[in-house]
Each structure stands twice: as C-alpha cells, then as structure tokens.
Amino acid sequence: MQSLQAKASEWSGVDSADAFAIDEINLFQKLGLEAFVNLSTNFYNRVYDDEEEWFRSIFANSKKEDAIQNQYEFFAQRMGGPPLYSQRRGHPALIGRHRPFPVTHEAAERWLHHMEQALDSSSDIDADSKRKMFNFFRHTAFFLVAGDELKKTQNQTQNQTQNQTQNQAQTQQQQQQLPCKNAPSNSHHACKNF
Questions:
Q1: What is the dihedral of CA 101, 102, 103, 107, to 10 degrees?
Q2: Residue 174, class by beta-carbon neighbours within 10 Å (0-12 exposed, 13-18 middle, 19+ buried)?
Q3: Would you call 139 helix, strand, or coil by DSSP?
Q4: Where is this region: Disordered (predicted)?
Q5: Which fold does the domain 4-153 belong to in CATH?
C-alpha cells in the first residue's frame, strides 16, 4: 500500500524534498507573525466569498475569525515559530482535524486556488518564501485528500465487516431453526449430522 506522503507527492506533483524545503530556513523568523496573519486573513476572505456554494459550505460551521486564527497559528508554528496552535488547540493532527470535511481532489484544488491568490497578493512575503510555502501547501492539501480517501476505505471495510458479521449471525440463527434429520419432527435444535 502506498503511503499517504507518497500519494501526496504523486497527486500534488510536488516531491517531498520540495514540500519540506520550508524546513531549510525559519520562515517565522524571516517573515514574522504579521505575514502569517495577513496571509490567512486574505485567504479566508477569499474562501468565505467564493462563488461556489459547494466550497463555501465546507466552511459553513466555522466562524471566519476562528478559521483565520487556527490557520495563522498553525502556519507560524509549522514554519519555525512558537507553538501557538498546540498551546491553544493541542496537536495539529491534520488528518484528524479535517476528518469531518469532504477533502476531495476538487476541494483541494479550490483551496489551493485561493491560497495561491492570497500568496500572490502578499507584499510582505518574498518570492522564494512564497514558492516554498506553496509547495508545502500543495503537498499538504493532497496529503489530506489521501487521508480522506483512507478514511473512506476504512469506513467501507468496517461496513463490509459489519455486514459479514450480521450475515453470519443470520445464517447461524437459520441453522439453529433447521430440524435435525434424526430428531423428532416437532424438535428444533442445532444439528451436527446433516
């Protein structure tokens, strides 16, 4: 089975070395917290104003201010800053935190569309940092898609197992109701000698 990271690289077109080039330099020290706040604010303004209802509905149960704070705190922490996100919310656990949402290929591309526009319009982030960040975002978006597909596979397997268990129970119950050929005709018990 292909790892989630390998799927993310394949689907995103970004290899792991480029995706994690953000770790070669402390982007938080280079850019400062305000750059992450501005990027996340710009991004979520675009998301909440998206013309596609299906995409906006993904964020319908989240307050925009909370989404902005969660994102900039995570970005700052992941890119070398203090553990703001973890102190407030616990471990980021990206796949788990995105589990309730439909993280499809289409949703990832739409998310990336808005992030690319937000990055392009950010004057407080240099071109090299933008490139590194976008590679990380693209890879991570498809890592979440891979996690969502794994969730669906696990749910299907769980449902199949439940169905098999129910079918086995029904078969056992039916077998217990069959009369044994050596038993009196009014007797219903399990028979071992069919």
A1: -120
A2: exposed
A3: helix
A4: 154-194
A5: Globin-like (1.10.490)
